[in-house]
Amino acid sequence: MTVPSFVSFISDPIAQFREWFALAQRHEISDPEAMSLSTCGVDGMPHVRIVLCKSFDAAGIRFFTNTESNKGRELGANPRGAVCFHWKSIERQVRAGGVVEKLPAADDDQYFHDRHRESQIGAWASRQSRPLESMEKLQTDVRELHKKYADRPVPRPPYWGGYLLRTERIEFWVQRPHRLHERMLYTRDSDGWRMERLYP
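^ that's the sequence the OP posted. Answer follows.
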């Protein structure tokens, strides 16, 4: 895809992100919702993994996971995080960071019950990030859970839920020839958002 000579950035980064996200949904061939999530525990060691953005608005970016996973425990100890979307098909990237907080239980319930039933079962079967003796053990647990919930809805596990990353900084990046990339940083302050261009 050909990128325009220069991007005309608007003053609202959420509206800017919405425009780029829609563009990625039309052109990115694999999971435009995928984002790298970085967290850091009390030991100071950062960790990064791919999660899916489930929604976003002026408040921030939402994702869901097992809260007893490594990322859940790290966010419990150090509730700050950063995400990065990289859309190779449109040669654009968005990075955001800020404070992360748990979503209300009602939001967790609503999203969990909208998930595919197999994913609901998987949330119970997986003790995410903990040692697993074999894939056969996991498959056995999944079969047992299917039997357990055969004639009723799958309830949400108490350790499964969502997070809101309250965006304090959002950076938009456009790939340019010879690594002279275009970057625009939005920083939240008392008056709203401050914009500044950055060197590549």
